[in-house]
Amino acid sequence: MTATDVSSQPAPSARHRFAGHVVWITGAASGMGRRHAERFAAEGAYVGVIDIDADAAQMVADGIRATGARVRAVAADVSDADTLDRAAAQLHAEFGPATVVVANAGVVPGVLATVEDTDPTDWRRVLRVNLTGAFLTARTALPQLREAGGGSLVLVSSAAGLFGFAGYASYVAAKHGVIGLMRSLANEVAGDNIRVNALCPGTTDTPILDREAQALGVSRDALMSAQAHAHLIPRLIEPDEMSDALLWLCSPEAEMVTGVALPVDAGALVKRSLN
Ligand SMILES: NC(=O)c1ccc[n+]([C@@H]2O[C@H](COP(=O)([O-])OP(=O)(O)OC[C@H]3O[C@@H](n4cnc5c(N)ncnc54)[C@H](O)[C@@H]3O)[C@@H](O)[C@H]2O)c1
Q: Residue 57 contacts by C-beta under 8 Å, 6 or more apart in sequence?
């Protein structure tokens, strides 16, 4: 199965852990965010598909609506507070306050470069979307989560938020920053019954790998093979496997889990720690 035919798969869970919940996912027009949106909808949630790519977001929403679920696509740039606030207001008007928010939108550097050779414009772009985007998403979402009486906020980091890679400093710094943001936020809003966690994926089979291969100047197949070998379980992770972890993290089953950076990385961290 490839990343592109993921959405043709039926949702594997017949559970309804999110019936009546209002779930927003940023970066939901592609890859993991898309699958997360489909999976939350399959478990009864009203879903806000938020993405900078309005047409792709609408296509994802149309596919989800065809299953009978309630969904709305909203175009927003997570690095722009005004567009996010407008998206939040539209989703509130349609569904009521958010109860689950997933700051998933992310980008990779344009090229592999040492810190000395990194173009400051590309550095700022990577930080703006991955880190400032998570901050702005949280900032926009928190009043609604509070209005709802509490909820769950997940910031998507990466295994690269937990260790360093030569040549990828902007992404690594941004994803480490996401974990710092999560840890501060978890302390700030626990009293409001809001749990805040970070999800740290290992290499997952999504369209972002095309851009990563381009940045590294290698083929997608070569990248996939190298990344699979960076895992203890020597294959790439499927978006559905990330959704399994995310939906658990947002569910009542994880009621006592907050302030955690959860690796779903096929053992990449532990493998590196042995090297
Ligand atoms: N795929 C992996 O191996 C991997 C590993 C670790 C972490 N991650 C992280 O997981 C998240 C999802 O990645 P993916 O692999 O599904 O990527 P993807 O490229 O398939 O999807 C990313 C989505 O984010 C959207 N987006 C980009 N910039 C945006 C912006 N400014 N505002 C709103 N939306 C924007 C894109 O349009 C796209 O729909 C990202 O944060 C990524 O950094 C991915």
A: 28, 29, 49, 50, 51, 73, 74, 75
Cα–Cα distance, 168 to 154 (Å, whole number): 23
Kindly report, residue by residue over 59-82, the tens digit of the pLDDT. Answer: 999 999 999 999 999 999 999 999
Radius of gyration, CA atoms only, the chain: 18
Residues involved in catalysis: 171
CA of 107 to the centre of ligand 1 (A): 6
Mean pLDDT in the chain? 94
Q: 191 C-alpha vs ligand 1 centroid, how far in Å?
A: 30
For 169-195, the pLDDT digits (tens) are: 999 999 999 999 999 999 999 999 999
**H/E run at residue 22:** strand 22-26
Query: Could you tell me if 134 and 184 are in contact, meaning their C-beta atoms sit under 8 angstroms apart?
Result: no
- 104 CA from centroid of ligand 1 (Å): 6
- Ligand 1 residue neighbourhood (C-beta within 6 Å): 26-27, 29-33, 51-53, 77-79, 104-107, 129, 133, 156, 158, 201, 203-204, 206-208
- Tell me the whole-structure pTM to 2 decimals: 0.95
